[in-house]
Fold this sequence. Notes:
Layout: H1 3-6, H2 13-24, H3 38-47, H4 52-79, H5 85-103, H6 105-113, H7 120-155, H8 160-179, H9 185-204, H10 219-223
Amino acid sequence: MNSKWLGRLPALSGAIFAVVAFARGGGDDAAPTASSSGQQIATYAFHHGLPNSLYHVELWAYLALMVFSIVLYSRLRAAEPQGAIAAIIVVAACVVSVAIKIGSFPAVYALYSSPVQLDPGVARALWVLGDFAFTVSMVVQALSLGAVAVSGLLFGGIPRWLSGTAGAIAVALVIGFVLGGNFPVAPTLAWMLWVLVASVALFVQAPRAVPDKQPALTPLATGAV
């Protein structure tokens, strides 16, 4: 493969995350919700155990998402003025979001891997930990998307149609998770789709060339005759 394309391969890390996220899905119609009782959660978890391999796949998928945020940072930083504040927020918010989500893995693992049916109070506590972590992580992820939108629209480090849709999805994520219920479903799916499309688009599109900065004139040079 041409070295030009090899250098763009990290951009496909976003597509890896999106594919795993779509394949993982959100469970069946009987999956617990915020209104489920502890007994319902305990019964569902006991009869729907998750294989250990799934946790490893999800872990690597979230790490791939962080790699993709670094790709976004590199594209946005090249177009931003010195400081690249928005580009830094993109990476920082994504890392915090992923850390929050991964931090809930032990609770979810304990809930679904128990060889015996858990006490309803314990089961609900573990489920709430995972659900709350997901909510907070997605709100923080909205901050990352918002920074993508601001930087891309103002400075054009990535296609502006990608930046504009990132901004719209960021707003939808915040509204959806504030309202709760089924409202977060559509924005979350839209975010996954955006990551997939953005990943492919950045793989196809060459990185923006960084212009050489002209050195500042020294007093000696300006005063020379």
